[in-house]
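Before a computer can learn anything about folding, someone has to put a protein's shape into writing. The three-dimensional part falls to structure tokens, numbers that each stand for a local backbone shape. The protein below has been through that process, and both of its lines are reproduced in full.
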Amino acid sequence: MSDATESTPIKGLPENYRRVLEPGEDYVPLVPQDGVLEVTTRSVLYGMLFCAIFSMAAAYLALRVGQGIEAAIPISILAIGISRFYLRRSTILENVIITSIGANSGHVVAGAVFTIPALYMLAGVPGSNVPYPQLWQVVIVSFLGGCLGILFLIPLRHNFMVDNHGVFPWPEATATAEILASGESVGNQAKILAGSAALGMLYDGASSMFRAMSETITLRHAYVGAKLREQFMAFNMLNSAATMSIGYIIGLRYSAVIAAGSILSTFVLVPMIHAIGQHVPGALPPGTMPIAQMAPEMIFKNYVRIMGIGAIAGAGIMGVLAGMPAMIKSIGKNIAGLRSTEKVEVSNHVPRTARTLPNSFVGVGLLIFCLCSFLFFSFGVGMKGAFFAAFVGTLVVMVIAFLFAPVAARAIATIGTNPISGMTMLTLIITGLVMLKLGFGGGLGMFITLMVGGVVCTALSASGAFATDLKIGHWIGATPARQMWLKFLGTFVAALFTGLAMWIMSKQGFGTAAVPAPQASAMREILDGIFGTTAMPLRWFLFSLGVVLSLVLRMVELPALGFALGMYLPIEVNTPLFLGGVISWIVNRRSQGDTDGLAKARENRGILVASGLMAGGGIVGVIASAFKIKWPEGFPVLSAASAEGALGEWLAIAAMTALCVFVVVYSRAAKPAED
């Protein structure tokens, strides 16, 4: 699809790629010349393949653990490694295209997991009157949102990439660009990544699909677990390589904060509620039986988890309030930045690395989006004759995305984190109140509100990820217009496979111990409060306690959202996260005499191994969920009694111990020359 000329040898990113340019100084990208293969059949097909794979893996992990996958880095490594199997090695621009298309997986999943699972949860409540979402609806919501985020950022490319060159740190873009520029030296890392992914699939498949060992470690047969349960404290740990690896990547500090939330829930609040509630003779809603008859897990599900949801909501809203001054300032800068867009950069007289899509394309694209959005909200969500409500829903999407999509991109450029949770909550509150005023209450009102929120959330997530892709291309020398066109293709692929993964996992039940979906659970509770569908005073009291707790955490400068996630997620999810954090600390601990190069080599290899285990475990998790639709028991090696008994637990303990030892020993065996 591009010219067939090979590129010159790559020697590294220019010296000025991250610093502010001197007056009169121009930035010359790594590959400024024309004639380098860029958009080829290989680059497009591999980009779509990686996008599909990582979309399903990211959806599984985000719904199971509440943590997503930053796919750009592992995809860039795989792109470089795979080219070794061809007579013609891929050019660096082909690898940029592969990474750009594949990285759509992360932003579409990040947008969808906040809202779409809440639709499935509400639809499963008897009498809620919420329509059960169809696969095509989920795909359209994600695709529309992704396209909107891309369209709003195209006019700001010049401002972000050229006018503000060297102003923002771009943490994820920096790491990905350096990997792509390193080329050959990264090739061996692809083998480590692929091998680790295979190991992750084997390990998690053995526990989840083949029942070759216990899926949850309770320590009941190791004395400790049984003694804790006597005190109404239930220790559980998910036997999952993918979950442990997420803890490794987020590090000891953040995984410890999440684990601390679980410790408070499981070892303090659950025993306390049992100690007090056992003297109450009747059932306390939302519980359906007396507390004295409940197991620790039931008390957690019916009471403590609601406090966690309140804490998640409180942390998100306070994050928006705390960042509001910066957001307002950012909105002003982004509007001003629209004046500095390219003039005729689609012309052949303009350098290839400056060619972009014209603003007329953006205008037509936004008109098409508005029409599609209006038609979808009019005929695709079950509203009959509600054209005004569809118009209002489209208007809300456009206004909020216009204001906050560039803010999300600026946040990614500055700190590498997209604050979409709080902005999505704000969207749901605004849309919910508007729908109530229009007379759309109850189940239909919640359904429409979550559909609108899904579009907005995906748009905000897409804008941040798209900005990262454009910055990588700007540094290396990709053609912006080609990146933009292919971003729409990648968004469609990601929307399709994210919707498929969610449909498969919905069969296990969102909001359950199997698929907690923490962010969507918080959104559901907010909508319950707005639409007044549930009258349970104790439930809202517990929710309010969680909000107050998040305020306390904010006051003492602790990560409120991480702690709140720990309170909400079952302890079996958070204990392997903490274990992964500990393993990460052991691998990266420096001994006397260790050089900086050795420490960096160990760090890089450990992250590679963890990324592979995480991706492989996520993929097999989706596969296992699909198989269990027809074969609920999977393909068991052990009987249910053996897997849950002493044999299964000791096998699980031995396997997890061996896995942790492997990660530590193999990572610390890295040599500086490999970096």
Remarks:
- Residues 41-178+326-518 form one domain.
- DSSP finds 24 helices and two strands in the chain.
- The longest strand covers residues 216-217.
